Amino acid sequence: MRAILAGVALACGVAVAGPAVARCTGPTCNFDTLKPVFKRLAAARGGQGPGVHILQIGDSHTAGDVTPGAWRDLMQARFGIAGRGVLAPGRPYDGYLTHGVTATMAPGQWLIGATFGKNSAASRPLLGVSGFSLTATRAGATMALSADSAAMAFDRFVLCAIGGPGAGGVTVRFDGGLPLHFDFTQAQVGPACQTLNEIAPRTRVEVTTDLAGLTLTSWATFRDNVGGVAVSNVGVVGSQLMHFARADDAVIAAELAAYRPDLIVLAFGTNEGFTPRFDPVAYEATVRAQIARLRRLSGDVPILLLGAPDALSRNAALRSNADGAPVECESGLAAVVSSATTVQPVPSGKPALFAPPALAEVRRIQRKVAGDLGVAFWDWQARMGGVCSAKGFVERADPLMRGDYVHFKSGGGRVIAQALMDDLDAAGMK
């Protein structure tokens, strides 16, 4: 694995060293804080008792499930399957992917709210960890979640909503069986999560609202008492960490109590690095505040902060989006990425590729805060091969990234997931 990543880095012909940080250096730091998770994973590997739940919150790299999905596959192949985990309810946007399960909802029956994007107007309902909400526009609004294989069958279903005096409830059916009922009526408007435990594993759950106006914030499927691991990915395309701050504390707290994560992974930073003008002071304050918030609301569950991956741009407006000069990534290309894959020629007539200076600032701040707060940090860019490695990832005969030099293809997701596994193993996860 290291040889593959090194080959991609050599293709870029660039070696850039970041500023030294005393308390958080190298591709990984503070991985000792993950030892409680490793201990639970070792127990779960036996195939009995509680599974381990990893909850990843982030932007499109998380939402698209390319890298977390590949990590899920590796983790579940080793430790076993404890379910699919937490998802945004229904289908909150076009192109929504749910690897391992299929989510459906009746068209025209749901109003979408979000922390970022076209459905993020200030009148949005309360939001939780998924970054989305679905509000029924009529009584009898329906959505369903189906396992794509027997391996993703579940015996614990959790549904989180915004309850209140007139909220009503939902009818729930497993595999088309007898109706069960969740009631979200309560004295005050606020979050409510309800759980159904089934004796036998199920492969499909259907949800139907009693009344119009009920808001769902997330749902989840788990498999209990068989060990294993569930890796949840909840992300909002285009979002930044400051948008996650729009989620409601009480909703997050209720969901974390219901979903019981053993590890929270924060994976933001790319969109901050592509802003027209980056404010390092505001960003550092946001990172510190959101880490403190998650620690407080989760009961101090371990956190793994993923540094922003390498990403490149041709947009000249981003060349000065932070202090410092952009790193040029067109010159010095080697002819060969590896013995099997050759670099494609530099496209004529296009502006040169570069790394926006704000991305380097994002990583510097992430590393600094991780060191200050004692949070586990993983240098995603370093494990790709360093600055400009995105060029090598794209311009292979078998590309690992899309042509936008930002998003990963499935092969790239597998490379990144394996690199993360290698570092977790080196820290004691085996």
Structure keywords:
6-stranded mixed sheet; 6-stranded antiparallel sheet; 19 strands; 29% helix; globular
- Strand pairing plus helix content: what structural class? alpha+beta
Count of distinct strands: 19
Strand order of the largest sheet: 1-19-16-15-2-14
Radius of gyration: 22 Å
The proportion of residues in beta strands is: 15-25%
Residue windows where pLDDT falls under 50 for at least 5 positions? 6-22, 332-345
Q: Given the structure, what is the number of helices?
A: 12
Shape: globular
Report the helical percentage. Answer: 25-40%
Tell me, rounded to a whole number, the average pLDDT. Answer: 91
What is the rounded distance between the termini?
A: 17 Å
What does the main sheet amount to? 6 strands, mixed
